[in-house]
Write the structure tokens for this entry.
Amino acid sequence: MFVPQIPIDERVIERAANWGFLLDRKEKNISTTDLFIAAAAHKNACLLHSDRDFEVMASVVDLEEEKI
């Protein structure tokens, strides 16, 4: 089975940092790992998850997510 990979490049790191700052200003604490995962998925994939952090992020930033 082939699982596509999305690279973590400078744009992803910058997006994660910006989102982390924005979410922190709104008093929403999200783990750094979840920020990187969401930032990599942004505009590349729908993020399937069972982690409330992604729902919180999607309420503030442009993130396509679906709880499974």
Notes: The CA atoms of residues 35 and 48 lie 14 Å apart. The beta strands are 47-49, 65-67. The longest helix spans residues 10-25.
